[in-house]
Design a protein that fits this description.
With about 950 residues, this protein is α+β, with helices and mostly antiparallel strands. The protein contains 19 helices and 42 strands. The strands form twelve sheets. Strands 8, 9, 10, 11 and 12 form a five-stranded antiparallel β-sheet that branches. The longest helix has 26 residues, at about 5-30.
Length: about 950
């Protein structure tokens, strides 16, 4: 038996054991004493805290993968007779074989069919569809149900046949070519050339069961389908300018998400980007009757039985809106975060992410899933609806997406989208090799964040009180939140520190870089970037604080960048991330661009000035007019899209400078002959050539136009030099900004054949990144701002490699005055607590709910550590490049394992032009093989062991046994 086969068999056994143990714990853990599980966000979950609760994984019963469980269940629906519960997934749900390719029969979305006539629910059937996105609805007679096909632009019809459900017909094709006249999504298309694919989201069926309304998320329209003929009979564009030419350029109806029918002739459609509910008349030719403006982003909708009231879950305002369907007016707004006595939330911080609703049979109680606080809000609906309020909270799994009730309301069914990933020593996604010991592990982070299904009896009043207190503990709710700077150490720091430099890097795990450090809980067998490649990473950890228990709160760059800049991700982000990364549709809408359109500026002429390529955009005036960003979080005082770190600093009257955050990088991809092309200049400031184009309206005037953003052809060394140019000016003029944002991104790697200055291999690009951060620290250390500046560094996520503790564990550095020297700090910190620390240091308000309730990183500081200095180390690997680095003063050498041609050949066909556009699965495997060699297979043990003790012996043993590339 080959090593690969033994490894695979071992993993299957391990996963089987883990699955059985997890299931046993979940089924047995029905007491309120269940132990909390800490999440990478800093919050905790206790899904089995309620009496009689049952928490179980969603296992589709794949013949070749019997222990596989699904991720991202998003929608539930109970049949009209109350006997059947459907659960739909819309997520990653991909498995790869040893050839590195997706196994089609093992890579689907799923509909789980449960019999709920008794408790616990009984799984009767699992159905498969190749693609989906949130849409699930029953026909009123219960004889059929319908599933949205997401990026496949179709609708699946399932009907009852004898004792099981089956898809008896071809899916109903909606026939879109996308909002911009482009063809529908397929995995073979190049996403960088597309402004949007069709994608079906919510579905609604009229009471007579004759017509279905499909919401077209990317086309800003709805399609009306005749269910008897299974044909689309009408299409309605929801954008004002497409309905009335006099309203060209007026925002409206964009990114529609959900729909419900009122009677057979009227429907309500929620629009996420334009924060409205569009009222549609379907009597003859569909038309828009009116638009109900919402304060926040309305997602799922629900009507009461008499259809007199419409309930809308509203993200970004953490509320429920209740509307009178006769007048189409909002009659009540209810906050969903917590009862006022438990958590008054006087700062109005956002982050609960309400995202689904269910009414009790007597319609006196409304249940709402709070995705962001891992809970169900129980709302008492008063006779005077304006007096309705949250009376309790029920704990759930991580990120609940949907709730349903059984017929009499005695049992609640809740699905959650995510789960803790655990360690991922074989942390890669795919490989171009015919045989890969890595690909078959299927340990990419989005493959490990599994969903779950919780069922529980309706709590009694006494139980609800106890459960509410449990949710409060899980989320660190308190009646009194401390204001920034009130703790002694931060009051002290506020008197000393005037400047923060916040650096975000790309995608590395702790073990990948610091696993070989002489202290801390690192696994040297997983370390790719040892001292000759990354000496400054190692020295910064040694000299200041080694944070060996730091977790990135996001899984991938899409939500990682939101967590890294806003301490949260909106429901829209959480719903679309896994689908985007599985290449099942959607553009990368998470760093300012929407559908690859820069909405930092509103007008067509402004957009074309920012990017001449926009001149070819059809119907340009009606393509996302205005500056709204569908993914942006709101600020604590309801400022739309202003929930980022820089927004809080600006509100506090501080100065901000941006180097690369949230920029439109699409012009870097243009061929040299294009008028939109941006040349690769070492010093663009000298010639006045602008190379940075902000994608956030609030960063337009704050961004250094000469600091190149994400472009893997371009060394970080020159990014440092541009930052240094401005830093020297700030020193001269005594006006260093209070907050500097810096994207130093060459540890992402790629674009080897066209990379300049010989920085064209994995080792040299990592060394370039390493030397650049070292020079930044050195520059500050030897300046007049050394005593008043703190530098924070973080990876936006840890998706691109393995870690023996957890797939979220990553690198973080804090450098400067009053940071402890030589300290190993194993306190569990995360992205949110780091942002909270920056807020405390600068004395600015928290960004949202997560950072408002969490503690800063107090343990890293000491008032006695005022003096500090730093000297950047030149990585030995960097001497193979043409960068103008200092002459060698000590004997050191590093032999590159491979040249640029090797890396280019191995990564052939990958797209490195933007963050996470490449096939990360395949790249991670190539990275391991290229750095460690063919004869060093991935470790398979998922132990999570603490390796802090006996480090010297561990490192000696590993160095002796491993074929070290150094």
């Amino acid at each position: 038996m080959t090593l690969m086969k033994r490894s695979t068999r071992f993993l299957v056994c391990c996963f089987g054991l883990l699955f059985l143990v997890a299931s046993a714990v979940a089924l047995a853990g029905q007491s309120s004493q269940s132990q909390p599980e800490v999440l990478p966000t800093g919050m905790m979950i206790t899904p089995t805290a309620a009496r009689g609760s049952i928490f179980q994984p969603l296992n589709p019963g794949l013949p070749d993968l019997p222990q596989f469980t699904a991720d991202h269940p998003v929608t539930t629906a109970v049949s009209p007779d109350g006997n059947t519960l459907l659960i739909l997934t819309s997520g990653f749900n991909q498995n790869h074989g040893t050839d590195g390719k997706v196994i089609a029969q093992q890579s689907n979305e799923y509909i789980f069919v449960y019999d709920i006539r008794q408790q616990p629910p009984t799984l009767r059937q699992v159905l498969k569809v190749p693609n989906s996105f949130v849409g699930l609805v029953w026909r009123p007679d219960g004889k059929e149900f319908y599933i949205s096909g997401g990026g496949n632009d179709n609708i699946h019809v399932f009907e009852r046949g004898h004792d099981e459900w089956k898809e008896a017909h071809d899916p109903i094709a909606l026939g879109h070519e996308s909002a911009l006249g482009l063809k529908r999504h397929s995995e073979t298309e190049d996403p960088k050339d597309l402004f949007g694919h069709p994608a079906v989201a919510g579905l609604a069926v009229n009471p007579s069961g004759t017509r279905l309304l499909a919401v077209n998320y990317e086309n800003d329209s709805v399609s009306l389908v005749d269910l008897s003929t299974r044909k689309k009979i009408a299409e309605l564009d929801l954008r004002p300018g497409k309905i009335d030419p006099a309203k060209k350029g007026v925002p409206g109806g964009e990114f529609p998400f959900w729909a419900v029918f009122k009677g057979n002739e009227k429907a309500y459609v929620s629009s996420l980007r334009d924060r409205e509910i569009v009222v549609v008349d379907l009597q003859a030719a569909p038309k828009v009757l009116r638009r109900i403006k919402i304060h926040g982003q309305p997602n799922k909708l629900l009507l009461n039985k008499s259809q007199t009231l419409l309930f809308a879950a509203v993200d970004n305002s953490d509320s429920i809106n209740i509307m009178n369907t006769s007048s189409d007016q909002i009659v009540a707004t209810v906050k969903t975060t917590a009862p006022n006595g438990i958590f008054p939330n006087k700062g109005q911080y956002k982050g609960s992410n309400p995202n689904s609703l269910a009414l009790s049979p007597d319609e006196h109680t409304l249940y709402v899933t709070n995705g962001g606080t891992n809970s169900v809000a129980v709302i008492n609906l008063a006779r005077d609806l304006d007096d309705s309020r949250v009376v309790g909270l029920i704990p759930t799994g991580w990120y609940p997406n949907s709730i349903s009730l059984n017929r009499d309301g005695s049992v609640l069914y809740v699905v959650n989208g995510k789960g803790s990933a655990g360690s991922n020593p074989r942390g890669c996604r795919n490989s171009m090799e015919t045989k890969s010991t890595c690909a078959s592990g299927n340990q990419y982070i989005l493959q490990l964040t599994k969903g779950g299904f919780l069922s529980l009896p309706r709590p009694t009043t006494t139980e609800l009180k106890e459960l509410t207190e449990q949710v409060a503990r899980n989320n660190h709710f308190s009646a009194n939140l401390s204001e920034p700077g009130t703790t002694p150490i931060f009051s002290f720091l506020r008197s000393k520190i005037r400047h923060v430099i916040y650096i975000v890097k790309e995608n590395r795990t702790y073990d990948q870089v610091l696993g070989d450090l002489e202290k801390g809980n690192g696994d040297p067998s997983l370390t790719l970037f040892k001292e000759p490649i990354a000496p400054n990473h190692h020295q910064l950890a040694r000299q200041f604080v080694t944070l060996d228990n730091f977790f990135d709160s996001g899984e991938v760059s899409g939500n990682g960048w939101n967590w890294s800049t806003a301490a949260r991700a909106t429901d829209n982000v959480e719903k679309t991330i896994a689908i985007n990364y599985a290449k099942r549709g959607f553009n990368y809408d998470y760093q300012g661009l929407n559908r690859n359109i820069n909405t930092a500026v509103a007008g067509v002429e402004q957009r074309q000035a920012m990017n001449p390529a926009m001149a070819g955009l059809p119907d340009a005036e009606d393509q996302l007019p205005g500056t709204a960003d569908v993914a942006a979080p709101d600020g604590p005082e309801d400022e739309s899209g202003a929930g980022y770190l820089w927004d809080s600093a600006l509100r506090a009257g501080l100065t901000v400078r941006n180097y690369g955050f949230f920029c439109d990088d699409s012009r870097y991809e243009e061929p040299a002959s294009s008028p939109a092309a941006i040349p690769l200049l070492h010093d663009p400031a000298t010639g006045g050539t602008r190379v940075a184009f902000p994608a956030s309206p609030h960063l337009l005037e704050l961004t250094d136009p000469y600091f190149r953003s994400f472009d893997q052809r371009f060394p970080d060394y020159w990014r440092y030099k541009e930052w240094e140019r401005e830093f020297d000016q700030f020193v001269k003029n005594d006006n260093l900004p209070n907050l500097e944002l810096m994207w130093v991104n060459h540890d992402h790697f790629g674009t080897f054949s066209s990379a300049i200055d010989g920085v064209n291999t994995v080792e040299t690009q990592m060394a370039d990144n390493d030397y650049s951060i070292g020079m930044i620290v050195e520059k500050v250390a030897h300046s007049k701002y050394a005593g008043s500046t703190l530098i924070f560094m973080i990876e936006d996520d840890a998706q691109n490699g393995p870690d023996h503790v957890d797939a979220h564990r990553s690198l973080a550095f804090v450098v400067g005055p009053f940071v402890k020297h030589g300290a190993l700090i194993s306190e569990r910190y995360n992205t949110v607590s780091l942002l909270r620390t920056i807020e405390e240091v600068l004395g600015i308000r928290p960004l949202g709910l997560n950072d408002a309730v969490q503690s800063p990183m107090t343990e890293i500081f000491s008032s006695d550590a005022s003096s500090w200095t730093y000297q950047a180390r030149v990585p030995a690997a960097l001497r193979a490049t043409k960068l103008p680095i200092p002459a060698e003063t000590t004997a050191s050498s590093y032999q590159l394992r491979h040249d640029a041609e090797y890396w280019e050949q191995q990564t052939s066909g990958m797209d490195f032009s933007a963050a996470d556009r490449l096939d990360v699965e395949r790249f991670n495997s190539i990275l391991w093989k290229g750095m460690m060699g063919d004869d060093q297979p991935y470790p398979v043990e998922r132990s999570g062991r603490d390796l802090k003790n006996n480090r010297k012996e561990l490192l000696r043993k590993f160095s002796k046994n491993a074929q070290d590339p150094q």
